[in-house]
Amino acid sequence: MKALIVDDDFYSRNMIHEILRPYASCNIAVNGEEAIFAFREAMERGEPYSLVCLDLMMPEVDGQDALKEIRAIEKEFDVHPNDETKVIVTTMLDDEQETHDAFFLGGASSYLVKPIDENKLIGEVKSLGLID
């Protein structure tokens, strides 16, 4: 599995990386702009990400806009909806509007509230069919 971890907070990025690294080859982006660049590069190389862990609240390009762009890139590359990258949005806020927007407008697969719990993250990745 190949994963992209996107978060502007060092602690959060590091925590997710430590949890996922036994299961995935992980790349890190510190904001939405870097995430979009990394996602496009991976698609162009024919090595798409299986999973993106995406913080919603970031400076410059936030997670909502990055998610919309990620889905647009997949459309450019004719990715079938069943084959889309699984996106777990992460947020400090248990905000119903943010969650609603991420799922129904952005196409998120799942979401977790920070701080990220190892068992919950691994459970979500398993439920998305990315690991056994």
TrEMBL record:
Positions of post-translational 4-aspartylphosphate modification: 55
Biological-process GO terms, alphabetical: phosphorelay signal transduction system
Assigned keywords, A-Z: Phosphoprotein
Listed InterPro entries: CheY-like_superfamily, Sig_transdc_resp-reg_receiver, ST_Response_Regulator
SUPFAM superfamilies for the chain: CheY-like
Any matching Pfam family: Response_reg
Record-annotated Response regulatory domain positions: 2-129
Protein name, per record: Response regulator
Originating organism: Pseudodesulfovibrio senegalensis
Lineage: Bacteria, Pseudomonadati, Thermodesulfobacteriota, Desulfovibrionia, Desulfovibrionales
